[in-house]
Design a protein that fits this description.
The protein is of the alpha+beta class. Among the domains are: 6-111, no CATH class; 127-215, no CATH class; 239-346, Nucleotidyltransferase, domain 5. It has helices at 59-74, 85-100, 107-112, 132-143, 146-152, 157-172, 177-186, 190-194, 203-215, 217-232, 301-311, 330-338, 393-422, 430-444, and strands at residues 12-20, 27-38, 44-53, 238-247, 272-280, 285-292, 320-322, 342-344, 354-356, 363-366, 372-380, 387-392. It has a 5-stranded mixed beta sheet. Strands 9, 10, 11 and 12 form a 4-stranded antiparallel beta sheet that branches. A hairpin with a 6-residue loop joins strand 11 and strand 12. Helix 1 (59-74) packs across helix 2 (85-100). The longest helix has 30 residues, at 393-422. It is extended, with a radius of gyration of 31 Å. The two termini are 57 Å apart.
């Protein structure tokens, strides 16, 4: 139940969030039975034990129910029993559900679990397999209700067992279908946990199961999005959108989306695909999509924004979307506003387009890494957004080192050109040296005043 002894368990209580009741179409409280406890860092936390849903119980009845459930969990006798039949029925119902779902142990069960005796000399090991990570992942899969969701789609028990085996295996041992099937046969007890016959596992079945799971990707993502919000009692008020890409070793001639593009792993010789991911502030994935490898970052948002409301449990309207600067074009920002979203991003406005606001003071903050930063509001004549200037000494040092490195490389290039000009029997046409000089300047943006009559090392800044 919690960290520490059984007596460290705090009381249970009801917690509610406001939702639309499908039965009435009106806003009402959606209740959960929550347990509070202290973790290893002595921090008070809570977790959901039961999803109660919409209820007609009065506040007084709910207070009495949560008190009696806490007393039962701690083994304390109830001196003053309630005469309310509704309370007695609900207490018994909730308590039986807690025991059935193994959310709580009775004091007698807890005491029995404290002692066990074994003869260490009599232990023998045969066909030893790993099961720690597999068991943990399997419990997470069951809590998320993935098996129930697959069953609601008409999947058979055999396909569900294979799918759960696939999910747990990929989480614990992410590898190819061939390597995964060999790992299951030789090392893992995942089939004993999921109940799927190990002799049926092969790479072809895992491959077909992965394709079948991907065919229900959108529905499964929506289910997981709603379920994680219910389990952890969170709202998607802030969502983060970002992109990455990955490359293929093969030629991928038959792929419709693998394209040559700018690989973030510097594999410009290989075809890539772009992965777009939307997460909430707690790191739970709300939506993901795969795009062509040569698609620009700023072009992906319009494909994702229409799916965002469904993927965030219908609560995305009015949410704040955090964007990378490469995605935050004027067109995309206007699109977010039209869809009812707020946004936070790095501004593309140039420094000369903004000025400090005389009405706002400079605020100094300290980050979790104990780095001091200053925040100051600035205004722009071209933009109506709320713009903040964030200054960090660490960031300043980083940019200064980058600037110095660019300058050093540029000066080395100039020295190389000068050495070539001083050699005998060297072509000394201006056009031959203006072009490489322009290439050096384009790569650094540190110097100007380059003309056909000559050039000087004139520092202009970043």
């Amino acid at each position: 139940m919690g960290v520490g002894s059984y007596a460290d368990l705090c009381r249970m209580y009801f917690k509610s969030v406001v939702r639309i009741n499908p039965a009435t179409g009106q806003l009402a409280g959606y209740y959960r039975l929550v347990e509070s406890y202290r973790n290893a860092n002595d921090r008070v936390c809570h977790r959901t034990l039961l999803n109660i849903g919409f209820t007609d119980l009065t506040p007084d009845q709910m207070v009495e129910i949560q008190r009696r459930l806490s007393d039962r969990a701690l083994g304390r006798p109830n001196i003053f029993e309630s005469d309310d039949a509704v309370i007695n029925v609900q207490v018994d119902r909730f308590w039986n559900e807690l025991l059935a779902n193994k959310k709580v142990d009775t004091p007698e069960q807890a005491r029995k679990k404290q002692f066990s005796y074994i003869d260490t000399e009599s232990m023998q090991h045969r066909d030893v397999r790993e099961m720690g990570g597999e068991w943990l992942c399997y419990q997470a899969v069951k809590e998320l209700g993935i098996d129930g969701y697959l069953k609601s789609l008409g999947w058979g028990e055999d396909h569900i067992g294979l799918a759960l085996t696939q999910l747990v295996s990929r989480a614990v041992y992410p590898n190819s279908e061939f390597s995964t099937s060999r790992w299951i046969r030789d090392n893992s007890a995942v089939c004993e946990i999921t109940g799927y016959p190990m002799e049926k596992i092969n790479k072809d079945k895992l491959y077909r199961s992965a394709h079948k799971l991907y065919s229900i990707k959108e529905g499964l993502e929506n289910h997981l999005s709603v379920k994680t919000n219910e389990l952890f009692d969170i709202n998607d008020r802030i969502v983060l959108y970002d992109l990455t890409n990955t490359y293929f070793e093969g030629r991928k001639d038959s792929s419709r989306i693998a394209r040559f593009g700018r690989s973030k792993e510097k594999r410009n010789d290989a075809k890539i695909v772009v992965l777009a991911v939307v997460t909430n502030m707690y790191g739970f994935v709300k939506y993901s999509s795969i795009f062509e490898g040569n698609m620009a970052d700023c072009k992906t948002l319009e494909h994702v924004i229409d799916e965002l409301r469904v993927s965030t449990s219908g609560q995305a309207s009015g949410s704040t979307v955090v964007l990378d600067a490469g995605i935050a074009t004027e067109e995309n920002l206007r699109l977010l506003e039209q869809k009812g979203y707020k946004y936070v991003c790095v501004s593309r406005a140039k420094v000369r387009e903004v000025k400090a606001s005389v009405k706002q003071d400079v605020i100094e903050l300290e980050t979790k890494n104990r780095q001091k930063i200053t925040i100051e509001r600035v205004v722009s004549q071209k933009h109506t957004d709320y713009i903040l200037k964030v200054a960090s000494q660490t960031k300043k040092l980083k940019e200064q080192s980058m600037s110095d490195l660019f300058e050093q490389r540029f000066e080395q290039s100039l020295d190389t050109l000068r050495t070539r000009l001083q050699r005998k029997h060297t072509v000394k046409k201006k056009t031959r040296y203006i072009r490489p000089l322009g290439v050096y300047n384009r790569n650094t943006h540190l110097f100007q005043n380059i003309t056909r009559s000559g050039f000087r090392r004139t520092r202009t800044g970043m």
